[in-house]
Amino acid sequence: MNITQTLESLSILTDSDALFCELRALISKNFTKTLANKDKIISFYEESEIPQRKCFLKFIKKLYEKQGNELDVTFAKYKTIKLSLVQRNALTNICNIDIEFFNNEMIFTLNNTPRAFASYILQNFKDNESKFDEKNHKFSLKIKKDSDFDLIEEIISRREHLKFIVNFNYNEVKFKEFKRNYKIQNSAKFKSRFSALANLLEENFEILGCSNNDSFETVRDSYLALAKIYHPDRHSNKSESIKNEYNAKFKKIQAAYEALKPFFKNQENFIKVG
Questions:
Q1: Which domains does the chain have, with CATH numbers?
Q2: What is the rounded average pLDDT of the residues 57-78?
Q3: Matching Pfam families, A to Z (predicted)?
Q4: How far apart are CA 133 and CA 256, in angstroms?
């Protein structure tokens, strides 16, 4: 059994006749708004059936977790539920791709999916910055404009791509938050409020080896790396002149980081308010 979710639906695929018949019977018995044919049944959301939906989804979650998988059904009770029976060899071409969100980037973990699939997705975003992490079998895509979200949603809402059935696994709440934050941070109001201040703080960014367009996470990572290099404890056996030089550099790094923290805190508060 394989399960995937989009914003609107939860889809269950199985190649087991017995399991399909069991689940189909449960759906037919407990839900009224359904469409069905020989190999598929669809249950549409009905508010009065939420208790039955919760029980059904709890049962599905247990079955899926017995296979060693994880399933978040928090919002699934509001979705269209689709159950399909597939041929026994069809599930061999099912791929699972995990999606995470970081700043203005989407991180795709390919898992069992061939690397060529990354090229297939990225060909739709030729003007966007992207990079592939060979070691961890991941690739990242940087969002460049609002319309990128329309294309992303179209891709991850489809299950059939090339010769594969693809499960895109992601947290829907985090995806909505990711879109919202991106749009706020790229709004004219946000830019006019923080661009001038970022320019005033540019020297502090430069001390940390960053640009004034970098995120707090990038600045923090750079600070931690530099603080480790110049920390006085690492140079206690060196000459006094070197120790003094490194200590001064360390203090400068700390001061720059502390000066930038309120700037990013103000950005964070602005985004929360929206």
A1: 2-85 (no CATH), 92-179 (3.30.70), 187-273 (1.10.287)
A2: 89
A3: DnaJ (PF00226)
A4: 31
